[in-house]
Design a protein that fits this description.
Elements lengths: L2 H12 L4 H8 L3 H8 L7 H14 L1 H12 L9 H4 L1
């Protein structure tokens, strides 16, 4: 399945963010986040943007890492959050 789920799982583990916290900030059910993290279902493009925004509210570094992992950018190369996805 998708790159977004893998990137999200890694970011949640690295930054110790719960699936419930992400779901709460996004205003969705935790089961949706669970399905993405476990690669049962891929989030759509709009949801990837909402994920980035939710992670930014929780921890801006986590959001930046999510974008980097999702886009496959090398470490050290910074992305502009609103320009990439």
């Amino acid at each position: 399945m998708g790159k977004a789920g893998k990137a999200l799982k890694q970011v949640l583990e690295t930054y110790d963010i719960s699936q419930n916290r992400v779901a709460s900030v996004m205003g969705i059910g935790r089961s949706n986040v669970h399905r993405w993290v476990n690669e049962i279902r891929d989030p759509g493009a709009e949801m990837v943007i909402q994920l980035r925004d939710a992670l930014h509210q929780i921890n801006p570094a986590a959001a930046e890492e999510f974008v980097r992992l999702y886009l496959g950018q090398p470490e050290g190369e910074r992305s502009e959050p609103s320009d990439k996805i």
